[in-house]
Structure formats: C-alpha cells, structure tokens
Amino acid sequence: MIYLDNNATTRVAPEVFAAMQPFLTEHYGNPASAHTPGRYMKAAVERAREQVAGLLGAASPGEIIFTSCGSESDNWAIGGFLEQNPTRRHIITTRVEHEAVRNLCEHLAEIGCEVTWLEVDGNGALDLNDLRKALRPDTGIVSVMLANNETGVLFPIAEVGRIVREHSAAVFHVDGVQAVGKVPINLKEMEVDLFALSGHKLHAPQGIGALYIRDGLKLPPFIIGGAQEHGRRAGTSAVPNIVGLGAACELAQQADGHEQILRLRNKLEDEILARIPNAILNGARDRSKRLPNTANISFQYVEGENIMMLLDEAGICVSTGSACHSGTHQASPTLRAMNVPYTAAQGSIRFSLGRYNTDEDINRTLEVLPEIVDRLVAMSPYEQELKALQRAG
Amino acid sequence: MELGAPIKEHFLSPRNVGELGAAAYIGHTGSMICGATMRVELRIDESRRIADAKFKAAGCSFLVGAASLLTEAVRGELAAEVGALLQSSANSLGQLLGEIPAEKSHCVKLVRDGLLAAIAAYSDFVRDEWQGDEALICTCFCVSEKTVEAAITMDGLRTIAEVTRACNAGGGCRSCYALIEDMLRCAEQPTSR
Lengths: 393, 193
Known about the structure:
The structure holds 2 protein chains of 2 kinds.
Chain A: E1 2-3, H1 14-24, H2 36-56, E2 64-67, H3 70-84, E3 90-94, H4 99-110, E4 114-118, H5 128-134, E5 139-145, H6 157-167, E6 171-175, E7 194-198, E8 209-213, H7 239-253, H8 258-275, E9 279-282, E10 294-299, H9 304-313, E11 316-317, E12 319-320, H10 333-337, H11 342-345, E13 348-352, H12 359-379, H13 383-392
Helix pairs in contact in A: 1-7, 2-7, 8-12, 9-12
Chain B: H1 5-12, E1 25-30, E2 37-44, E3 50-58, H2 61-74, H3 79-88, H4 91-97, H5 105-129, E4 136-138, E5 143-144, H6 145-155, H7 160-167, H8 177-188
Antiparallel strand pairs in B: 1-2, 2-3, 4-5
C-alpha cells in the first residue's frame, strides 16, 4: 500500500507504539491513585504533558490538557468560552475551517450567537483587514485554523493573534490539528489563548487530543466529574494514549524526516502539474504558505472520486474533496470558498505525505496517475473544454 | 463507499464509453445535486431497435458503473419499449444494478434521464419525418389510430406494453395511455354486439 492520506490519519509510529506498549501490558493503575503504580502512571502522564508542551512551545506544561480528540478540543475551547462569557456572543471564524469548528459555529449561530465568517481569496488566503473590521466590543472569541486540512494553506496566526489582542478583548483560539508535527510552533511567542491538537495526525493513536489553555485563562470543564487534569477535564486519563501522544510529539521534534517529506511532495506536485494538462494546484502557489506535506490538485472536467477509486485499486490511498456520499453532496466548502470553478472542484485530489513515504511511492504514483486521468478524460463529456486546455498547454 | 459487484466491475472496465457520430440520437443530463454531467448517444435502426448505445460521463463511480450497465442492457431492445419501461418503475433498474443505496438514487436517475433524453431526440426525429394526415394516438412517435387499431386486432394485443412493443405507441410522454386503454377495452368486447 502507498499511503498518501496522512492528513486524514497517520500510521502509529513504531517509536510511539514502543513507548505505549508497557502501559498496555505490564504497567497499570489509575494515575489518580496514591499508591506506587498509580504514581508511576501519573508520572508518565506528566512526562507526556512536558513533551506536548515542548513541541508547541508552551510556556509551561500546565497549559496542556489532554482530551479525546481534536474535535473535543475545538468544542471545548469555543463552547467553554461562550459558557463563561454569555454576553459576548459574537464569534469570528473563517469560511474554510474544519467541520469541528465550522459546524459548531453554524450550530451556535442557530442558538443565538452571531458569527462573522472571514472570506478567503483564490489562493486560500485571508485578508487581515477583514478581521480588523470584524472585531467588535462584544466579540468573544476568534477561531482561526493554523493549517487547512484540504489545501495545507497556512494562516498567519501570529499576526492574527496580534490584531485580535490590539483591537479587541476577544480570546483567540487556533485549530492547530492539521499543523502540529508538520511545521514549527512556538505558542509562548504568540498571542494565542487556546490551541487544539489531535494525536492521530502525528503518528500517535486515534482517540487522544489536547487543548492548550494559556496560563491564566478561565475555561469551565468540558466534562464535569473527578479532579483529573487539575479538575479541568474529568474522566480517567487514557494513559497509554497520552504516553503515545507524548512520544509522537518528541518524535516530531526530531529533525529527521521533514526534509524528505517536503522534497517528495514537491517532486509529486511538480511532476503532476508538468505532465497532466488538466491538472491545476489548489491553494497558495507560494510553498512557504502551505504545509510541506500537502498538495491539493484538481483534475479539471473529470471526477475526483473516480480518480480516488482507481488509485485505490492500484493500492494508492488519497482523498477527494468531491466524494458523493450524500444526496445533498456538493464540492468541498473550502474549495468553494476559494471560488475554485465547480468543474475543477469536482476533480480535486488531496495528496498528503508522511514520514514513511519513499521515492518509490512517488514514482509509482506518477506512473499510475497519468493513465488513470487519461482514461477519465476520454470518458469526460467536456470534450471542447479539454481540447482548449490541450491547445493552451 | 463500497460498490455492489456488478456496478464495481463496470466502473473498473466501463463498456460503451464514447460517441456514435452524426447519425446518433443524443441525450444530455446533469445533476444539480452532485454536479455530475453525462451524455448518452443511441443509434436506432429501421426495426426501431437500439443498435448501439454509448455514453460519456463526469460523475461518481456509481454513475459510471450504472451508465455502463444500462447502455449494455438497452442494446438490441426496442427504443420505445425502453422509454416506457424507464418511466414506469425504478425497480426494473434495481434488478440490473443490484442494490441502489439511497444516496445514489440521483445517480441512477441521471442515467435514466440521459437514456430518456436520447429516446426523446429519436421521437423528435420521428415527428419531423412524419408525412401522414391520419389522426394520431401517440404524438411522440406519430402512431395513428389506424395503426394502433390494426396492431390490437390483428395481433390480439391486451396490454399497453404490448401495443408499445408492436408499434411504438405509448413509448414517449405516455399521455396517450388513456386512449390506448379505451381501444384495448373496445377490442375486448365481443364482436357480435
């Protein structure tokens, strides 16, 4: 299998599994217990907290609270703040957030909050003047993702944080799920109050996430119960998963692998765009404004879902912004927000690389993909448009 | 999603992809639900049968598989009969396509509409060619009362489907069904009355 869907989830790293294994076998005990095995578990949790804080550049490990997933972290951050501050019901977010934020904000708009949706341009970039204009005295929370899950486009959250701080009393939440482990992050240098991450995007197992809560920020517990996580998130700590997340954060901080991912992504992207006439890139052309592992490419006038299925037959895993899952299916909201024409949005494929991809993976993909696209081009009813592309190319 | 076996096989090796040139009857359809578009081309011979069927599509794998299966199924069939059948019930397609998931019903409708649009183009052609001045029962395929009556009495027809098969009447918009039913009822009365 050639796995190019690392933005969906990643393989658990052997180093992560090795760190977790003792906590699934020989070590057990509730970290809330005062006896020796309990204290051993507690120490493992606190070590993982330091590892996560290290990767995020948090000022102190106490700012990291473990959750079950990225969506929980996002829901807690935004919902919790609004619970604490019921009079500040204006929210600012972007058109291209992950469902965990987008659908939550849509829900909040239905129950009495007011939401300002910041638009993006054709490259997927924000206009920060829109943010300046949107901030109001009653703005409670601004939520902006660090990296877009579909296109990999990075938002300038340091700048966003400065603007929020200078022009308002709002808190700033960042959905960092797709960025953590892929780009350097230094939260103590930024005006970020809340920051969500998810373990399975960086080679930890599924079922573990964390929320960074800046020291001093009040946030009511999302789960009410015992005193775990300093009383901020009840529920017995998932020690093996927490240990796994800690190990994954440490692994991500090591320099190896990142250069390789960038080189392979660039090779894949360059070759596809050079060799396939109906291929166009979605998202910032400037690669410094995108995650190093993501290439979102539209194959115009053909259906992305067909490409995905045929690549799957060839043992290559990618994802599409155009999966026809439901009767109300439309192309991805992110691509629509970028005004990608629908004949291109329908044919979008996301290639997202990871630390285990090799040159062979990319060569094989480049061998198989053009034939698949050729086949679908021959099936496409958009002959005139495709012919025009051929002439232009 | 997991595709049913016949659909998947046809998606992986689609039959009848392409065009038929100038002599073909062409139907275009598109879905506002999913953005898929497709074109169906039919060649219909002197005996009113579909001699060849081709399609092109930009749509999901289910749509491609269904288009391949259905264009395969209609080849050799009477065009008007196919038209009547496609309009009468979606269940007849279910047997061909296997289980149709609810979220894919619009894909099946798209293929069906494509075939019906191509058959409608054939009907337009028949209407343009029509030279007679007899009273018509079926205005889609220009079938006169005389022709329908002759088919019913000479062949002893009992159902609308049999009439459509015999002479095309009823294979288009189906607004002549009441008239054909009346004629079938009259024919059933004992001749000695």
